Model the fold of this input.
Amino acid sequence: MSDADRAADFACCDLLARYASGADWIDESMFADVFWDDAKIDFGSFQADKSTYVTLIMGYRTGYLRRWHHFGLPRIRISGEKALMEATCLAHLRPASPASDDEIYHGRYLFEVECRGGDWRILTLTYLMSLSQSLPARGLEPALRKAEGLDTGHPLYALRCGPD
Done:
């Protein structure tokens, strides 16, 4: 693998990390920055442009206490200034309403990524769901610090690995 391909591979992996972190911490700037302005998002029954998708994900601030995205190791195929990327994902959402069940999604993300002016970003995102589950949200949980209320105003936000 050439140095340029290694750098592109790293940039693609970093996109996944920033996608998950931006969505989970409701960091609009970080999340929006992983997409090109002309990006297309396709979840099957839901298709959107970048602006609509970012607005939807940032709307999770009020509807969910917890958000968590965990990507598996991506498979990346680089071809010059373009790359195809595939990664499995497990996502968990805990609704703010105590009467609602937790939502668990197992799926696969397919990305077309493009480098413009030395900057790698997502051009297309296609999601393929393998499984969705609803689980009782309120059970006995250990007395650990909960990942609730994550947003850019959270007192632990400064400790995460984000842009300066």
Summary: Residues 3-137 form a domain with the Nuclear Transport Factor 2; Chain: A, fold (CATH 3.10.450.50). The chain has one domain: 3-137.
